[in-house]
Amino acid sequence: MEESESEWGELTRECLINILSRLTAEDQWRGAMLVCKSWFTAFQEPSLHSVFNFEPYFDSPSESPRWWTLQFESKIDSMLLSTIQSTHQFLTQIRIRHCSDRSLNLVTQRCPNLEVLSIRSCPRVTDDSISKIATGCPNLKELDISYCYEITHESLVLIGRNCSNLKVLKRNLMNWLDPSQHIRIVPDDYLNACPQDGGSEAAVIAIYMPHLESLKIRFSKLTAKGLNSICQGCPNMEHLDLSGCANLTSRDIANASSNVFRI
């Protein structure tokens, strides 16, 4: 046993980093860093901590009602806070769900190099933290705030003004045409809080996000006027997802996108 541990401890730093890079974030934090001193030292390598991605853990066939509880949110917040406190200066990507302003406020203070922020399905993320993200993370290139109903167009204004490199925006809403898939999973009061300001958000995107290349706004309540403004204001658009946008007709979409040559 001692001989085996010695062999693991004598691996070169390059080899150890290669091994650690192949582990999931969960496996890294559960004990790989504690195998021995050389493993702990290798674990400090910046390249190992540029991405914090917990999306794969939410890719189950059906969503769990417990994900929407305060208890689960608290655990997610604690996990994200722990990660930021340990590796904050290296983080360029954060992909997580069901966090709150509590953890995101630390992101704004500690992660100035952040380029990707994906925080889908966060009922208690508000304009308070997103407005701080806008000023604290100016290098943001991709933002996913899908199903975050406490975030308004006012935050999008600040993101557009301060994050000039933003190329990807995802602002999908839940299926309000057939909410049966969310019943008994997502709290009823949250389902009923679905944002109604599709026109306001479209105007903000058109005015403040001219460099967008990809926009996903599934089940948005924008109108033909809003879509026209987006297409006119975002000439570099290559991908536009309008699935479930019931206020639009095929003709509206064809007319609005006719002048966006890359789409």
Describe what is shown at a glance.
The chain has 263 residues and is an alpha/beta fold. The chain has twelve helices and seven strands. Helix 8 (153-162) packs parallel to helix 10 and helix 10 packs parallel to helix 11 (224-233).
Q: Please, could you describe this protein's structure?
A:
By secondary structure, the protein is α/β, with parallel strands linked by helices. It has helices spanning 2-9, 13-21, 25-30, 37-42, 70-87, 101-110, 127-136, 153-162, 188-191, 198-208, 224-233, 250-257; strands at residues 51-53, 93-97, 116-120, 142-144, 168-170, 214-216, 239-241. Strands 1-2-3-4-5-6-7 form a seven-stranded parallel β-sheet, with no helix packed on it. Residues 10-48 form the F-box domain.
Task: Describe the structure using short key phrases.
single chain, seven-stranded parallel β-sheet, 12 helices, 10% strand, globular, disordered N terminus, Leu-rich_rpt, F-box domain-containing protein, F-box_dom, Leu-rich_rpt_Cys-con_subtyp
Tell me the Rg in angstroms.
21 Å
Order of helices and strands: HHHHEHEHEHEHEHHEHEH
Total strand count, please? 7
Poorly predicted sequence stretches spanning 5 or more consecutive residues? 1-5
Q: Summarize model confidence as the mean pLDDT.
A: 88
Calculate the terminal CA-CA distance, rounded to whole Å: 60 Å
